[in-house]
Request: fold
Amino acid sequence: MSGYSLGIKELDDLVGDIREGTNLMMIGPPMSRKDDLLDVIIYGNLSNADDSAIIVSTREPGERILGWFEENGMDPSTVNLGVVDCVTKTLGIGAADVEGIKRASSPVDLTGIGVKISQFFEDFFVRKGSPRVRLCINSLSTILMYSNLQTVFRFLHVFTGRVKAAGGFGLYVVEDEMHDPQTIATLKQLFDGLIEIKAMGDSYAMRVVGLSPKPTPWFEYSIDGAEVSLSESKKA
Reply:
């Protein structure tokens, strides 16, 4: 089994295959379209039955997540894509689990979230024999609003460990300006590298740290549907 990729050519050419069991933090300011970037990375890596993805959504209902994939030409029912929806029940809507969506009661319900993640792992990795599993949590910052750092750290330790054991790939979103430096430093202990995002005037730029001997250059990016366009930043 070959390694993983981000599905963004300029970055993949620089970092090469991402080894199995890698966990990355995606950290950047609000309004930098991290949600779309995460979806694009997943979208580009659901090409066959060996690939699967689990998205823990703390900001949008599961139907809206799957709707993005439909709008960009992918039928979620034909791929191994699951959403742990931590939003719908917080709105007082007694929605049941449906195909591709499992509901947790809220972002504070780490036990329930963990159970739903495990059910998708069982479904994709064991029952469907999909060895290339991706776990994406969007976002850790929302979870940290409701739970203390120690509790979230323990929760993450379990699932980053599971990603390592399964030879998977984990990607976890953090809002850069919501946490103190100690919180970020503590969380970073669990990750093998970073996708860093920063504002560059009217645009945003990203780079990858920790997957190659030195960080990649900063690339300004734009997103159109499921496509990301990069240009090396002259401002960095």
Q: What stands out?
A: DSSP finds seven helices and ten strands in the chain. The chain has a mean pLDDT of 94.
